[in-house]
Design a protein that fits this description.
Elements: H1 2-11, E1 15-16, H2 17-24, H3 32-40, E2 44-48, E3 56-60, H4 62-82, H5 88-105
Antiparallel strand pairs: 1-3, 2-3
Length: 107
């Protein structure tokens, strides 16, 4: 969950815990431990909303962004190596299966 949180925050300037949970397809209570852990590691930070002082927004730090970029680079490198000698139509078929799996699991 930690990496997924970092990845989502890297795509957005800042999110509330509720927005982050919605984007990840979960409830905000499920994020509490991961958010605390990421904050302790200084990979995310909190800022009070300028519009609504009751809201707290979660932001990825520069350190968090660096780590997330390294993780994504490693993942992309591994995928490139795994798919290196596989024909494009086969890769597309594999991608299609991966896209269907979450839908099947949620039924």
């Amino acid at each position: 969950m930690d990496r997924t949180i970092l990845d989502e925050l890297s795509l957005n300037d800042s999110l509330t815990k509720k927005e982050l949970a919605k984007n990840l397809g979960t409830i905000h209570q499920n994020l509490t431990r991961s958010i605390k852990r990421l904050q302790e590691q200084q990979l995310i930070s909190f800022a009070t909303s300028e519009v609504d002082m009751r809201q707290t927004h979660i932001k990825i730090t520069h350190q968090g962004m660096d780590i997330n970029n390294k993780i994504n680079h490693s993942i992309n490198k591994i995928w490139a190596e795994l798919l290196n000698n596989i024909a494009q139509p086969d890769i597309q078929a594999f991608t299609n299966v991966l896209e269907v799996l979450p839908k099947q699991a949620s039924q």
